[in-house]
Amino acid sequence: MILLFIFTFNIVGSFNGSLDGIPVAYKDLFCTSSLSTTCGSFMLKNFKSPFNATVINFLEEAGAIMIGKTNMDEFGMGAANVYSVHGPVYNPQSILFDENHFEKNDGDQRVAGGSSGGSAAAVASGMCFAALGSDTGGSVRLPASYCGIVGFKPSYGQCSRWGLIAYANSLDTVGILTRTVSDAQMIYDVISKFDMNDSTSITPDVRSINSSIPSFFKLNSNTDDLRGLRVGVPKEYFVSELGESIVNLWKKGISYLKSHGATIVSVSCPSTRYALSAYYILALSEASSNLARFDGVRYGHRSEESNKNDGMLYANTRGGFGKEVKKRIILGTYALTAGSYGNYFLQAQKIRRMVKSDFDRVFKRPNPLRFTKKDSGCNENKVDVLITPVTISTAPKIEDCLTTNVNNFINTYVNDVFVVPASLAGIPAISIPFGISSIDGFPIGLQLIAQYGDDDTLLGVAKVLE
Ligand code: GLN
Fold it and tell me: How far apart are CA 79 and CA 143, in angstroms?
């Protein structure tokens, strides 16, 4: 199944918002009161929420129309969107049509990327203007790069997570998928608001401190003059696994920004190499705790078969999770056990702190969360944004992802290597389509990363780069 897509025709009411009549789709982990919310899981196949996620309410108030919910990796766990009870998502860029407009398969079907693969495919194939996804560790940026569209992960806390079914609360971010950066900005302007239902929503006080700190671009800037902008190229992102055509496009992106007046600086983020392992310990630990609520009593499918042996009360019911989710719950539970907590969870937390400090060290702008009155403002020798690749390769073949075995299973996690550092630090990052691979012709995205709260500069530079 390409997409879990349920059309609704309840276009009612008179609109006068900034998104009047604009069709949008939502990843199937945003609660909607009019359609079911399955999280791509058998566990929630019959779940209907009594309320809408806050971001959906904001979009509806602005006039947007929900055209459906989109497929995803089960509970957001995956990078290829092949772990869904609804089946995998095919990358629209790899679907060919014969002269009668019927789909034909030339054996090179690619994944759309995950976990927001359905949202990316819906936007890339023109089914909607924009789609919401969630980005815990790259799930919006990675599919955007594979499908040749824009994927924006705002700073953690900018957009409310109320009604977004959690994978790993401290990392989960609402993400926006569109064809252009200006379209992403339109959606962002509507959903980036304080929400008292989300205890991690950035408060009005912090929002006003943030806007008092100088930044290169202010809201909705539309200039391509980048004189004075300093762009960092983190040397740790030059890894040996990086495909040649990706390196070439990365260099092209750097030259392009330079040709618009930006100054290019080499920077170092030494903790990057530990970020991927730390991410998988922290995300899985939080997931193992979050997913405890799907026990057939509070939420989720309940098995008819009863097994009342000691400790086995929930075994049949919990068997409703897919294989990847079960694996992650076990690994996360292990990392939190008394014997391994110190060696895994605490170490991963320390690495997370180091990754954050690396970013704070390279950016010009102080972090508004650690901003004090004696901060003298910006350090002009530092940088405004970083430019990096999004992935080490173009979209993998679908059959390679479906046939994961002991020899290739690590590959399915490695493609997250460039996207998880920004997630650990909670800072804004965006994937922008920047050309196609000279080897296989599939899209390649470049990633821009900015200081926490400097989403405006990120979007401003992204508009120049796209
Ligand atoms: N690929 C990552 C994971 O599987 C990211 C998922 C996400 O951002 N939801 O955890």
Answer: 8
